[in-house]
Each structure stands twice: as C-alpha cells, then as structure tokens.
Amino acid sequence: MALVHRDTPYRHWEFASDSGDLLRVVPERGGLVTGWRCNGKELIYLDLERFLDPAQSVRGGIPILFPICGGLPDNTLPLPQGNFPLGQHGFARQLPWQLSALEDGQGIALELKESETTLTSYPFSFLLRLELRLVPGALEIDTSVHNRSKEPMPFSFGLHPYFNLSNLKSPRFEGLPERCLNHLSMADADTAEQMARLDDGIDLLVRPSGDVRLLDPEAGLALDLQLSAPFNLVVLWTEPPRAMVCLEPWTGPRQALISGDGKLEIGPTETCRLQTRYAVSAC
C-alpha cells in the first residue's frame, strides 16, 4: 500500500494495510505516529487540541526517545568530549524526520541523522531508522542505530506510546514483577500497590522477565508488549483524568549514560538493532 497525504483532522500521512489497519504519522513533528488502528479499533490516544497548538508539548501518539530516556542532572550530558546540554528524553521527538514506505509494502520507515542542531547536544554522527510494519493483529517496530562517528557512541532508546483506555479503574496488567522503581519518589516500591493507583497517576519502571499484557475488559481488548533484550525495560505512566496509559519499552533507566546501568555503546561503523512488538487480541 502507498502512503497517502491527508489534511484532516490534521496534516498527516496515512498508511493502510489490505486488512484496513492503518498508521498515521507526522514526520515533521518528531516522526510522531499519531494513530494506529488495528482490528477496527483506534489504539493510540492523542490530545488533538493540544497537538494543534505548537506552543504546547504533545500528549499522545508514539514519541521517540533518543539518545537518552528520561532526564539528566542539570540537563547536562557528561562525555569524554565535554559536557553537553541535553533535555528530557533527548532531541529525536522534537526534530523533523524523513518518511518513506517500506519496499515490502508492509509499513513505513522513519529516519533521523545528525545535524548542526544535534551535534551541539550529542557530538556523534548517527543514522537512526525505525521500520514500522502492520501485520495481522500487531504492530512490529524494528529500530537500527548506526554509529557513523570515529568514536564509540553511547545511547539509550525508548518509545513513549499513549494507549486509549475505557477508564482508569478497570484495566489490569500481567507480567509485571513484584518490585518497581517509582519515578515520583525515585525509590523502590511494591508494583501491585502502584498499579492500584492508576487513577491517581503513576510513573514507574519495571524490569519484567517476559512480555507485559494490558487487559481492558470494558473495551474487550488485550494488548501485549512483546519485549526483546536489550529493549526490555518497561515504563508505565498515567496522567489523570486522561483515559490513557503509556506502556513504554526502554533500553535503560533514567541516567543510564551516567550510571552505566543499561547503557548501550556501539563502536565506529557499527549498528545496534532493537525489536519490539505490540499485539492486539480480544479479552
């Protein structure tokens, strides 16, 4: 299927599969996927009013986190080359990306490479490529990070998808470990106690041993986040009263490039490949 440009309800590109599943993407707004319809249901939450106001940060879609996840002390990235200003979640979600259709006809590709803007925050030449494929009942996301520099390149990568919920009371989660890191207090916490507070607002990181499942009985929907190392940490976040949850795969926790916990580093001319998959079924 071909990419089609649409002007309503906002300017975007649309890719539809033969089954009727589709993706909506706005490449100039951080390569943001703003919609994913699967099996006739719109899964992605998007605050359209906020999205249409460029003065406000986006609430919705699938923001891309690179070259860090989370924030840094004083918004500063310390490297052997010096200290560099780098804001929350990095710069990828704020820059224009290049969009194309995949040659196999199953989805789209998004690409971002270094520029004068990125080099002031992150002194590396790179090519970041995401391939998003619509397969029956699922969205597959294959990411490649290519180091085009002459020095080793450290990074973290994450996705920040917002998913629609019927409400913040009835959803359940499976596959979560007993303990988590509560980002609100930066302390170890009981996962079940935190998840019981969805409608109060949560922000936590878990290290699951397998896939994580979201069950929304009122919507009759199950969503499986299928993980693959090293892209296998998960952040869960809600922002009441919005009827949504962020179910986010990360490669490393906050400040991984400083602590070394989950830090990824690739040598000159090397490529790191990361895979994740969201599968939809009835419940």
From TrEMBL:
Specify the species: Cyanobium usitatum str. Tous
For this UniProt entry, the molecular function terms from Gene Ontology, in alphabetical order, are: carbohydrate binding; isomerase activity
Name the Pfam families for this protein: Aldose_epim
From the UniProt annotation, give the residues forming the signal peptide. none
Q: Gene3D superfamilies annotated for this entry? A: 2.70.98.10
Q: What is this protein called?
A: Galactose mutarotase
Coiled coil stretches, renumbered: none
Gene Ontology biological process? carbohydrate metabolic process
Q: Which PANTHER family match?
A: APOSPORY-ASSOCIATED PROTEIN C-RELATED, GLUCOSE-6-PHOSPHATE 1-EPIMERASE
